[in-house]
Amino acid sequence: MIKYFGHSMFSIDDKILIDPHDGGSIGLTKPNVEYTDLVLITHDHYDHNAYQLLKFKEIKQSFYGNYTFEGYKILGLRAFHDKENGKRRGETAIYRIDTGKSIIVHLGDVCDKLSEKIIKEISSPDILMIPIGGLITIDYKEAIDLINDLKPSTVIPMHYWVNGHLMPLDPPDEFLRKMGWKIRELNKNYFEDIEKGEIIYFKA
C-alpha cells in the first residue's frame, strides 16, 4: 500500500516513510502519521526533513549506497538539486526501493538531467514518484522527458502547487494534459493496485 501526504511525502506499506513535512510550514494539512519503522529523507530541507515529529526505528538521510531493511532492498543514488552540480541547493538522493513485489523509485528534488548510469540503475520501475512543479525541481516538460527515458509502469507526480501551498510551484494541470496517459484521480490518500500506463493523481 502507498499513501500520499502531499508534496514529496509517501508511506510504503505503513513501514517506510519518505520525505516527511510538517504541513503548516508549506501551507498543507499536517500529515496524520505518528510512527513508522524507517524514515528516508532525500535531502535536508525543511519541506522534506520533519522527522522530529515522528517516532521510528531507523532513519536514513541523503543516503547513497545499498541498504536492506526488514526485507526491503533500498538503493540510494546521488543527484543534484540544481543545474549547477549542487552549488546552489546541494544534493538530493534518489531512492530505489524493492519491496519484493514491486520496484518503487522516488526521485527526491531532482533538478538536473540524470546520468546514463543513474538512468540504467533506476529504469523500468513499477512506480515512479517524480517532481513536476519546476522552480526548484524539474518542470513538467523535463519530467515527461525523464519518464520517457525511465519507462515506468505507473507514475505518481509530486512536488507541485495545490490550493493553499506556500511555495510558488507549477500546478499539475499541464503535466496531466501533456502526458497523454490514463489518469486515475483519487479522493483518498492511498492505493494498493497499479495498472501499466497510468498516472495516479491525488486530488487535493
UniProtKB/TrEMBL annotation:
Q: What's the short name of a Pfam family annotated to this entry? A: Lactamase_B_3
Q: Which Gene3D superfamilies match?
A: Ribonuclease Z/Hydroxyacylglutathione hydrolase-like
Entry keyword set: Hydrolase
The UniProt record lists the keyword Nucleus = no
Is Membrane tagged as a keyword?
A: no
What's a Gene Ontology MF term here? Answer: hydrolase activity
Q: Which SUPFAM superfamilies match?
A: Metallo-hydrolase/oxidoreductase
Q: Which PANTHER family match?
A: MBL FOLD METALLO-HYDROLASE, METAL DEPENDENT HYDROLASE
Protein name as annotated: Hydrolase
Q: Source taxonomy lineage?
A: Archaea, Thermoproteota, Thermoprotei, Sulfolobales, Sulfolobaceae
